[in-house]
Amino acid sequence: MSEVTDIVVPILQRLQTDLGDVKRHIEALTDRMDAFEDYFTYTMGLTQQHTLDIRRLRTEIAAIKARLNGPEDNSKTIRGRHG
User: Fold this and answer.
1) pLDDT in tens, 26-55
2) How far apart are CA 25 and CA 27, in angstroms?
């Protein structure tokens, strides 16, 4: 029986050590994935904010152009239809 124990115990100890190493690697990867998730969420928030800012600016530019060119564009349209 001690011969079997002498063979099996070192194998089990090695498996336990390997399992501990795997658990530590998984914990490290989990921490890195959490950090990546935080970064990704932050980046997506910035991107969404910039998209909204760009849309607002385009709307404002279109409104300014309409005010600046409004009567002129209307007279061209009217002349184009009737001229």
Assistant:
1) 999 999 999 999 999 999 999 999 999 999
2) 5
**Is 5 in a helix, a strand, or coil?**
helix
Overall pTM > 0.85: no
Lowest mean pLDDT across 46-50, 71-75, 79-83: 79-83
Q: How far apart are CA 74 and CA 42, in angstroms?
A: 46
Give 83's DSSP letter: -
Q: How far apart are CA 38 and CA 6, in angstroms?
A: 49
d(CA 68, CA 64): 6
What is the rounded distance in angstroms from the CA atom of residue 33 to the CA atom of residue 24?
14
